Amino acid sequence: MTLSFFIARRYFRSKKKRNFITILSTISMVGVAVGTMALVIVMSVFNGLEDLIRGLFASFDAELKIEAAEGKSFEVTEDWLDSIRSLEGVEVLTEVIEDNALFDYNGNQIVARLKGVSDNFLDQGRFKNGYFWGDTTLGTDLRPAAILGRGVGFFLSVNLNDVIVPLKVFYPKAPRSAATIDPNQLYSSAILDPVAFFSIERQFDDEYVIAPLEFAKNLLNYGNRRTSLEIKVEESHSINSIQSSLKELLGPRFLVKNTDEQHAGLLRTVKLEKLFVFLTLTFILAIASFNIFFSLSMLAIEKKKDIAVLKAMGAPDKLISRIFLKQGALIALSGAIIGLILGFLICLAQEKFGLVSLGISSAVIDSYPVKIAWTDFIWISLAVIGITLLASYRPAFIASKVDTVKEL
User: Fold this and answer.
1) Residues contacting 95, CB < 8 A, separation 6+
2) Domain boundaries, the chain
3) Calpha distance 156→150 (Å, rounded)
4) With 162 labelled, which of 127, 133, 269, 274 sits at a CA distance of 20 to 30 A?
5) Cα–Cα distance for residue pair 101/207, rounded to 1 Å
């Protein structure tokens, strides 16, 4: 144990005098503890929200998605598709045709996203999070069926138990040179049997209708073109390694996106919000830590004679500075440790028991999600160390400049 730390610890733990300086030091420690605890809780909530978003998107999105680098769609052949299926690590490949269409149910109409998928779409673990009610099949070739987002279904007032009323789908045809006055020649139409609803996230619930690939191909007249391919990776293989292999196989004409890249904008927004909240709370913590500055400044004034004695005994200015820097560190780090422990325990209790609920009856989860990340503890500790050094530097400098002759 160094001399500077020994003296700083004696000042910190001294119970001989309970004066205003001691009270101010205690207030400083409590302020750091509360600020640190708030940082831990808020950062953990943002981590939980980020994980929740990823989990919800994973219920609808594929682990890997292949799209054209340019254009809306691309041509496929069976040999080309087989080359992708045969790639080691690829478990399921789903063909997708996706476009906007007009939906009509019993006179109610809405423009939504028609997503035609091959039969193995549900084999990719879709809708494992969120809600799903109804039939899990997409009908037959003669009677194709549709799985509707809850928002689309509620807007159209779809009754799953009414097998008589069909869901009509309309899609505009490509314009031709020869004009026609028959409106029926301007669009293609077909019917679906609504058999199920899904509810994952509003972005999907209010926009998507899932239908068989053959239905979408015939209605939209896509032929051998596809808008995307969705891939499920075998559990024994890394998604990143399969993504790299697909990029190498397909070349620059195609984009291969993982789940994060498919919603990069939203996840980037969540991370930016987390960063700005961290900076804001750190600034508040810095303001609370001004008490450290005042308590150390007053301690330096009170201990002038002690400092003069130390200097008369040959103590250099650096030793005096270290005493007060370590005194500030003891105050701040004690508060930080208490705050980290309290924050961890509160987050653990929220994770296990759901102490704070969302207050939304139709939410996918009942309480605020939290996820404890140890990297957050590191960043918070570094922030506390930086604030402590800033708050302690000036009092330590003043203490080191005490005039020995004048004070003795």
Assistant:
1) 76, 81, 117, 118, 213, 226, 229
2) 3-57+266-407, 62-262
3) 10
4) 127
5) 11
